[in-house]
Write the structure tokens for this entry.
Amino acid sequence: MNNSLKHIEPMVHHSQINVPYTWWAGDTAGRFLKTLRDEQTIMGTRCNHCARVTVPPRKTCPTCFTENQTWTAVSDQGTVVAFSVARRQLAALVKKVPVIFALIRLDGADTALLHTISQVDPAEVTIGMRVRACFSKDAGATIMAISHFVPTN
Amino acid sequence: MDSAAIVGVGMTAIEKNKIRDGFADMVWEAVNLALDDAGMTIDDIDNVVTTSNDFWDGRTISCMAVSDASGAREKNVSCVEGDGTFGAFYGLTRILSGSYGTTLVTAHSKGSESVSSLITNAAFDPIYQRAIGMDMVSACAMQANAYMHRSRTTPEQLARVSVKNHGNARHNPKAQLPMAITVEEVLASEMICDPLHKLDCSPVSDGCCAMIIAAKDRVGTAAKPPVWIKGAAFCADAFHLGDRDLSRAAALTRAAKKAFDMAGITDPATQVHVAELYDAFTYQELMWLEAMGLCADNQAGHLLEAGVFDIDGTLPVNASGGLLSGHPVIAAGLIRMAEVVRQLRGEAGGAQAKDPTVGVAQGVNGLCGQSHCVWVLSAES
């Protein structure tokens, strides 16, 4: 710290970076999002080498570093493998707290999908809980075409 | 490995808001402290590696903005975007290439100047994930839950990490949050994101660390005894959280094994005398300890309660106070290395472990510990 400034009000510069981006979704995510929007179906890719099904789909197998993938539909139901409950309204949160974030391994998939769980008391959510996807027709071809997950029972 | 050593370290105080210091001011302070510590001048520095993050700094090519303050003009300066341990790793490899005898490494950030929730939200994939609204805290809370579920670690054990590290920080004049607190106070603090209370989370901080690494034939010119780099390794896991077993840190296990192998360490739990780990959240200290083999699986919480990781325990962990007591992102891992250097030199004052000769430092980059850099340091060559 510069001591000569000790008795002077520090000068700060307020600014904001606001840059529009247009990210190309790519063929793989593009097909996944289009199928979500048009058919309310969750697609994954099965590696022709290790047979693992990756959701959301990837152009290359994350395990094998190979490109040969076969598209396959997975269930809209799955199991919670990890979750957290946001209580403080931090800036990144889109929804009002409490927000339940979860990794959900859909039936037929070997990896877990990141999303939210709603319409349930956060205290009732557990690892191992069964959930199913609810779809939104208003979200277009985005990940929010799955609006959230709910417990199956 | 006996090819290079750390010969100088310098760091600013870690503060909530260094409103009177810009990035270059912090770097200038840390670099000069490191040069003084090494008994060197900028003319003794062969090349420079600066470490920063453009999103945190709010400017493109942020590392170059501190090149004057790091004395990089007319030298070969290169930049690493990530944790300071990764900058140091690059600095080390430049020494090992034989092209340079000394490397000055800097790492800085000012968390106070932006909004950490938005910055870390931007680490998520823009197509598949970002709109869901997660940030570092909510992602790590999810990992905490997965780890606690698997290992049966309790909220009280997590809280005890906070009690220990804030307590240790009382011996560290550069720490931001020295505090005498209780397990009950941690558990009663605001729940930010289940299962993480406010006092389970590291604070937003400003700070900078600098370090000078020298080749074997140049350590003799330094003012203090060298701290030898016996092993250094890094390893990354999958980017997508759902591709990993989030309750484990497989990449850290790999990085640690490689670093310990390089150092000839076969039983880290008994052969390491002091550790500075990346405790951005309480659960991480316990999870990293297990993943590195510094204790058995599912045992870190119990050993913590038994006092093993206290300053006067058999393996002091984050005797400096750790990141829970001050967390300038980017600088964070380099500070872990600098604190191990201070321990091995016997300079840690009230936080000094008893006669350590081998220490380990760890840095993390990415969400929920995607990648890890592990350093094994020793006072003896």
In short: The longest helix of chain B spans residues 23-38.
